[in-house]
Amino acid sequence: MSKIEMKTPLVEMDGDEMTRVIWQWIKDILLEPYIDLKTEYYDLGLVKRNETNDQVTIDSAEATKKYGVAVKCATITPNAARMPEYNLKEMWKSPNGTIRAMLDGTVFRTPILVKGITPYIPTWTEPITIARHAYGDVYKNVEMQVPKGAKAELVMTDKDGNKTSETILDFKDSSGIIQGLHNRDDSIASFTKACFNYALDMKKDLWFATKDTISKKYDHRFKDIFAEIFEAEYKEKFDAAGIEYFYTLIDDAVARVIRSNGGYIWACKNYDGDVMSDMVATAYGSLAMMTSVLVSPDGIYEYEAAHGTVQRHYYKHQKGEETSTNSVATIFAWTGALRKRGELDGTPELVKFADNLEKATIDTIESGIMTGDLYLLSKLENKKKVNTKEFLEAVNDTLSKLM
Ligand code: NAP
Ligand code: MG
């Protein structure tokens, strides 16, 4: 059998610890036997980031802008404990944060569903994808403690020095607290476009919610920007694709989400996305089954697993002990990137390969072969726990029959 050709390279961002081990095994066992894999390789492992003063992260983001599609392994975000462990010159910033800022991207997280693992909300038979606006609001706030007797005001000075002010509260008879929030129209618009583009890409409805009835200027601005961009640029495309844009109040949205069967993208303001993404991920069963893609407003894609480097398993692996680490989300990062590359390049064999590898992965788990984390959750009767590498080999057995 001849190998599948790639026209354009993928940007490959290698990472750390157990996921770095899995990364190589996925390439060796599941990709390179079938594809003439073309990648532009960037080593985002912490050793290399430290060596290059984190330049490698910036270079990888630039390459992603150039080629349009990247696949990323989980990476360590250093904390105090990592300083001596890796002999670091600095506590380097999160690579994901750097890449997201450079691409002005929005992160979409989607669970992978398999038979045998029922979500905590059993009616969720389809995935719910969460998109979080990762700028502003309470994450970029200023706040103060206010002593009793003080008066708090919100003041804006325009470029000519004119001031507009509003009283927040006269703290006559109690001390208290105040907070200043902001967001930017350009950031909201980028988020809006990334969400509409991704909905078209996935052919899924898009939901968005705020508290605009209470927050008549702040939250209302989000509602208006979504509505204006939808009417001007997306309504016809949504009609043609047979999908909907649905806006409601955040509390109504939460009630509807719980009653729904899933199958849509839920765009969230920053705080809502922080909270809801953890709730939704947990309800679907396992962080190891959650994929993540960063999408820029101009259509650049970076695929990864939502989980971290699985440090505890890596330390076992280093000691020569057996691990049973789940590689599904990392496999799906590769299939997401290969499918997108195939779609952009017009190489249907690559798209077909991505579909087959996803099917082989799910079929393998549904046939009862799975890693330890899923073994604990699965209600299948004939289930069998395998180690990290045995799982990949079992997926390959299934895959080879589909090819
Ligand atoms: P983690 O790597 O996601 O792992 C936390 C725990 O979740 C693991 O110890 C394991 O539980 C379970 N788990 C996660 N993924 C799994 C998988 N694929 N298969 C089986 N079990 C899995 O989070 P962490 O330990 O808090 O963080 C480790 C490192 O990852 C940190 O340095 C952090 O900075 C980094 N991180 C990177 C990213 C990213 O690059 N996107 C995201 C998050 C964290 P058990 O130990 O109970 O088996
Ligand atoms: Mg959170």
Q: Strand percentage, roughly?
A: 15-25%
Number of helices: 14
Q: Which stretches of 5+ consecutive residues score pLDDT under 50?
A: none
Tell me the Rg in angstroms: 23 Å
Mean pLDDT: 95
Largest sheet, order of strands side by side? 2-1-3-14-13-4-5-12-10-11
Give the arrangement of secondary structure elements.
Blueprint: E1 10-14, H1 17-31, E2 39-43, H2 46-51, H3 55-67, E3 69-72, H4 82-86, H5 95-103, E4 106-111, E5 128-132, E6 142-146, E7 151-157, E8 163-170, E9 176-180, H6 185-202, E10 205-210, H7 218-241, E11 245-249, H8 250-259, E12 264-268, H9 270-284, E13 290-295, E14 301-305, H10 311-318, H11 328-345, H12 348-366, E15 369-370, H13 372-377, E16 384-385, H14 388-402
Parallel strand pairs: 1-2, 1-3, 3-14, 5-12, 10-11, 10-12, 15-16
Antiparallel strand pairs: 4-5, 4-13, 6-9, 7-8, 13-14
Helix pairs in contact: 1-10, 1-14, 3-5, 6-7, 11-12, 12-14
This protein binds NADP nicotinamide-adenine-dinucleotide phosphate (NAP) and magnesium ion (MG).
List keywords for this structure.
403 residues, alpha/beta, ten-stranded mixed β-sheet, globular, binds NADP nicotinamide-adenine-dinucleotide phosphate, binds magnesium ion
Overview of this protein structure:
The chain is of the alpha/beta class and 403 residues long. The chain contains 14 helices and 16 strands. The strands form four sheets. It has a ten-stranded mixed β-sheet, with helices on both faces. A two-stranded antiparallel ribbon has the order 6-9. The longest helix is centred in the middle third of the chain and has 24 residues. The mean pLDDT is 95. The chain binds NADP nicotinamide-adenine-dinucleotide phosphate and magnesium ion (MG). NADP nicotinamide-adenine-dinucleotide phosphate binds next to helix 10.
